Amino acid sequence: MKNFIYFFILLPLLAFGQVQNKDSVKVDLSNPHATIYTHLYFLQSDSFQPKKAAKTIYGMSESNAEKKAIKIKQVLDGKGLYVDLNRVPTNPMYKDTVGYSSYYKYILFPQRMPQIYVEKIGDKWYYSSETVAKIDDLYKEVFPWYIQQIQEVIPVYGHKKFFGIELWQLVALVLIFVLAYVVFLVSKRVAFFLLQRIKSLINKKTSFEVNTVLKKLAHPISLLVTASFIDKLFPSLQFGLETNTWVFLALNIAETVFWIYVFLKLVKVIMRIYSEFTETTHNRLDDQLAPIVNNFFTGLVIVIGVFRLLTLFGVNTTTMLAGATIGGLAFALASQDTVKNLIGTIMIFLDKPFHIEDWIEAGEVVGTVEKVGFRSTRVRAADTSVYQIPNSKLSEIVINNKGLRLFRRYNTNLGLRYDTPPELIEAFVKGVREIIIAHPETRSDSYNVEFTGFGDSALLVMVNVYFKSLAWGVEQSSKHRLHMAIVKLATALGVDFAFPSTTVTIENFPEKKGINPKYNTESERVNDAIAKVLAEFNQEIVEGKNEENRLE
Predict the structure, then answer these.
(1) Burial class (CB in 10 A: 0-12, 13-18, 19+), 447
(2) Does residue 15 carry a pLDDT above 60?
(3) Packed helices 62-78 and 32-41: angle between N→C axes, nearest 10 degrees
(4) How far apart are the C-alpha atoms of 237 and 147, rounded to whole Å?
(5) Interatomic CA distance for residues 83 and 108, integer angstroms
(6) How far apart are CA 431 and CA 485, in angstroms?
(7) Those residues with Cβ within 8 angstroms of residue 331's Cβ, 6 or more apart along the chain or in another chain
(8) Residue 441 and residue 469: Cα distance in Å, rounded?
(9) How many CB atoms neighbour CB 118 within 10 A?
(10) Which of 31, 414, 434, 486 would be 461's cystine partner, CB 3.0–4.6 Å?
């Protein structure tokens, strides 16, 4: 009996203690964490006190503040935005250092819902005036006008649950997926049509390969449209916060992956169009630039996409980026030569001091440019050996680009014997001039053939000509043809080429004949010899052209 009396005495005290424990959570607006916790806690089903949650709204009547607070909670739940209170700062003087360094504010979801944030007003933290002003519009976006009407027409049996899902939600979910499939098919055709129109505006030339890539590009674009369609309608099904969190996380991951795929294909399309453009130009350095730019933009898209995915999983990419910047600085200091070469590559493509297949002289290296890479340029010498020149060095040294010459200049001296008569010297000079004029690979309007001086062992006849072709092999064959014609001319005229010699004068004996050649300087014979050599030379040219046409 005594114990029974004690029980009735202690029962009110226990009940008062439980009520006191339940009411021990008070409104706290001292920091971002306290304000957000106060708002969310007093809107939970087991601690529903909207008047206290409304304290987080500044400058409004209690009834309006309650409505705003409830709508903020419903928008967050509808979009599946789970607030991890462990990440919310507890510092009363917290400042957002990402773009808002001069304001005391904290954005709950900077990427997905930047309109909802708290800010410091006086000594307390409240939901911002911007959040309060925009929450009605956000609520209408998440829960369109027809949601309430659908709820009113749903019969009682529509609220029966199967595996925790109400029947009307299950039917609506199937209907959304059917509509999403229709949206996918329509948007795919529309996207391909628009891409073709854009491509035709940029480049009129049709290409089967480009059209194939455009079809592949239209596929992820239509998937993006479909994912956005589901993203808009899914909150209308009013699933719980936990379900919405996982669904919208999956949707955001899918959208990010689709965006990465879209940009990768877009880079491929642009590079293909650029490649078609470079095929119409004579600058082969542009052809070399295409794969470098393609690799750069592909890597950039992948890096940005990975950072976006990490953000969805709650990783603080700002901190990671800061660490990557510091690590990148250390790496750059450790690899200065690589950075210099990369800068050198950029300068080469901007200045374009040479093109692919140009014959250049760069310091001690002489040869044909074969490839310009990220780090170095490959030059093949005349003996077929290969030089790899770092682009940092190549961008600093003097480059003599033989490939930019308008013509290939050839200058040489022909040495005639000192005992050659003046008439034959004049005839020889005249004949060489005629040969140059008749030569198909030399400029007939710019040449010099003159008796320029007296050498140690010969009379010097300067020959200065310009070959039209810039190809090294064509130049050598043109020289060969010119030399052979000059030799034949000398033979026909009876002119001998001199070589280093020493002449010793001795008394001539009557019965001995001198070794000096006898020259025939008759003008008729000289003219006939020149005409004959030129005729043979022109005949060789005609035969050579016929042979080339036959081979083609």
Answers:
(1) middle
(2) no
(3) 90
(4) 9
(5) 7
(6) 10
(7) none
(8) 7
(9) 28
(10) 414
Burial of 451 (0-12, 13-18, 19+ CB in 10 A): middle
Q: How far is CA 151 from CA 159, 237, 244, 275, 390, in A?
A: 10, 10, 19, 57, 71
Q: Which residue's structure tokens are 């933009």?
A: 297
Kindly indicate the confidence band of residue 8, based on its pLDDT and cuts at 50, 70 and 90: very low
Indicate if the alpha-carbon torsion angle 323, 325, 330, 335 is positive or negative. Answer: positive
Are 418 and 458 in contact, with CB atoms under 8 Å apart? yes
Would you state the pLDDT for residue 357? 77
The two tokens of residue 155 are 């019969």
Q: Are 184 and 220 in contact (CB under 8 A)?
A: no
CB 214 within 8 A of CB 268: no
- Measuring CA to CA, which residue among 429, 538, 444 is closest to residue 486? 429
Left if phi > 0, otherwise alpha if psi is -120 to 50, otherwise beta: which for 479?
alpha
SS percent in the chain: helix, strand, coil, step 5:
60, 15, 25
Are 260 and 197 contacting, i.e. CB atoms less than 8 angstroms apart?
no
Tell how strand 124-127 and strand 161-162 pair up: unpaired
Q: pLDDT-based confidence at 23, cuts 50/70/90?
A: low
Q: Which long-range contacts (CB under 8 A, 24 or more apart) does 347-351 make?
A: 347/391, 347/395, 348/372, 348/377, 348/391, 348/394, 348/395, 349/285, 349/289, 349/292, 351/395
| 87 torsion bin: left (phi>0), alpha (psi -120 to 50), beta (else) | alpha
pLDDT given for residue 325 in this prediction: 57
Residue type, position 507, single letter: E
Tokens 């007939």 found at: 444
Taking a C-beta distance cutoff of 8 angstroms, is the pair 279, 270 a contact? Answer: no
Closest C-alpha to 476, from 543, 541, 539, 408: 408
- Which DSSP helix (H) or strand (E) runs through 255? helix 241-279
